[in-house]
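FORM 12-B: Structure-to-Sequence Request
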């Protein structure tokens, strides 16, 4: 643990009410790492659909993730790919346009005629999940970002929850799309960081523009630069679609990074945290709980702030198990012992990492 993190932990403990047990984490905030439902419940149901997002909410996700593409007539839809072929039945209903099936060549009305099909490794071919009946009459069509936000707002209102949303402005860079994402969030009342919005993009220019759009509209939200972990000339950074940006450069415009888990190290997390950046990992696709523990647990020990997963249930099992483990670390009952306790806690963590 870096000296900065030790100081933050000490500060957090000093500010917290004393109790027999207290949870603490090596995350930047000290809060539990967040579980992000990647493309909905995409391991089980068709990705980026209302049915999939609803299942992710029922499974207990902290955030749902819609990727965002723009249709020919300027509507925002939840869709990962720039083309419709991998996830929908477009080829059975339409001829190619301009030699392909780009989202940007089809109107929303046309896209609404498509069916999204399951692609997850544990998905049922008939788009079902045991015991789950979606509320939407059209759960496996392509939803608009509007519809995803409406689903989320209804869910939070009805259940007294505060699940967040983590929209990604997809490539290629599209200024209209960035502006429209911010406008859509505003229309749904997601205007403040406390509304738990994290905007993300692999395009650094989009991160900059999204930040400017938020500010221009008097809004705040977290911003995450996506890409691969890169160590260049001794400095950590992230390589997105428009090149390498150091963590210091990213910290000027964003609040965090979303990086491929394959490149994450404890040193990278420490470097990001030292600059006030959160670190979220993508994308964990464990096919069992056992696999989930093997993939995710070590990075939680390093202080990972959150992770994208196709399997919210497995992700939560690991995160919640880790939370229970951490909360069992005793906190001293008196102030004179507190700083000694912090040192002991750090030592416990170091022993765990070394084990
Ligand atoms: O946005 C984080 C993660 O979703 C990045 O991967 O390709 O699934 O959008 P991708
Ligand atoms: Ca994404």
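FORM 12-B RESPONSE
SEQUENCE OUT:
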């Amino acid at each position: 643990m870096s000296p900065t993190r030790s100081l933050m932990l000490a500060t957090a403990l000093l500010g917290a009410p004393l109790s027999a047990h207290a949870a603490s984490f090596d995350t930047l905030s000290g809060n539990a790492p967040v579980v992000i439902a990647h493309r909905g419940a995409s391991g089980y149901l068709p990705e980026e659909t209302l049915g999939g997002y609803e299942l992710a909410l029922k499974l207990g996700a902290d955030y749902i993730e819609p990727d965002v593409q723009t249709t020919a007539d300027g509507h925002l839809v939840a869709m990962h790919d720039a083309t419709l072929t991998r996830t929908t039945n477009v080829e059975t209903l339409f001829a190619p346009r301009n030699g392909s099936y780009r989202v940007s060549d089809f109107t929303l009305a046309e896209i609404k005629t498509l069916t999204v099909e399951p692609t997850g490794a544990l998905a049922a071919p008939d788009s079902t999940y045991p015991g789950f009946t979606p509320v939407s009459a059209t759960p496996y069509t392509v939803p608009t970002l509007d519809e995803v936000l409406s689903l989320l707002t209804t869910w939070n209102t009805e259940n007294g929850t505060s699940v967040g949303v983590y929209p990604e402005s997809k490539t290629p860079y599209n200024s209209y799309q960035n502006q429209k994402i911010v406008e859509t969030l505003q229309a749904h009342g997601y205007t403040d960081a406390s509304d738990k919005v994290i905007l993300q993009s692999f395009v650094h220019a989009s991160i900059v523009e999204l930040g400017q759009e938020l500010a221009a509209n008097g809004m705040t939200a977290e911003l995450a630069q996506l890409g691969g972990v890169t160590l260049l000339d001794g400095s950590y950074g992230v390589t997105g679609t428009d090149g390498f940006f150091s963590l210091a450069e990213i910290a000027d415009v964003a609040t965090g990074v979303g990086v491929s888990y394959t490149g994450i190290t404890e040193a990278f997390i420490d470097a990001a945290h030292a600059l006030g950046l959160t670190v979220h990992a993508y994308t964990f696709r464990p096919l069992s709980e056992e696999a989930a523990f093997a993939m995710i647990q070590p990075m939680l020990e390093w202080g990972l702030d959150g992770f994208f997963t196709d399997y919210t249930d497995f992700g939560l099992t690991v995160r919640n198990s880790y939370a229970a483990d951490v909360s069992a670390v005793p906190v001293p009952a008196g102030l004179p012992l507190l700083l000694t306790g912090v040192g002991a806690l750090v030592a416990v963590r170091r022993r765990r990492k070394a084990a």
